[in-house]
Amino acid sequence: MEMNLNSQHQDNRFLAFDYEQVLELLKHRVIFKGTSQLFHYSVDQLQAGIDLQLEAIGIGGQTSNMNPLRTKVKKRVEESFAKKRNAIDPGKKLNKMKEAMAWLEWYKKVTLKEGGYYDSFKRSEYRGRDAVKSRQEIVKHQRILNRYWKTKVAEVEEMPQSKKAAFRTRWLYSGTKL
User: Fold this and answer.
1) Is the pLDDT at 42 greater than 50, yes or no?
2) Do 95 and 80 sit in the same domain of this protein?
3) Is the pLDDT reported for residue 110 higher than 70?
């Protein structure tokens, strides 16, 4: 019983490690030692932070054999930042799809006097430069919309919305323009 309490006490000691001393040491290195040593070989803030972290864990320094590690860590951090920066906002994507739908609506409106959008799109008797260019734009936007809705349908089929989740009417009503 006593041995069990001792082992339990040791486990709690490992779980409740006091990081205050480690943080103070890191702060001391950055304020007094780290910044003065950094400026003569590193101006980039990201690289300086990486160098300080490597130094703090004891594998830093100015040795040339550490350069591949530094560049690898820097590359990974930059990739991570890029992923966070370029995270796709579904609202932005939806707005782009609304623009593509506006193009199709415009084409529909413009081609009313030519017998409708279907007939004017299929007829190729006489076409000016502007008509060909507008047709290319319409085809581009049509393909973008087709791809978008195919991926959305596949996404919904893979992961149906739960009954408890709020219904996303913005996504629903955005696809009913045509």
Assistant:
1) no
2) no
3) yes
Q: What is the structure's pLDDT at 147?
A: 92
- Residue 171 burial (C-beta neighbours within 10 Å; 0-12, 13-18, 19+): middle
Long-range contacts (CB closer than 8 Å, 24 or more residues apart) made by 140-149: 141/100, 141/101, 141/103, 141/104, 142/100, 142/104, 144/96, 144/97, 144/100, 145/97, 145/100, 145/101, 145/104, 148/93, 148/97, 148/100, 149/175
Which domain does 124 fall in, by range?
Answer: 90-174
pLDDT range class, residue 40, cuts 50, 70, 90: very low
- Of 29, 52, 85, which residue constitutes the final position of a domain? 85
Cα–Cα distance for residue pair 26/57, rounded to 1 Å: 10
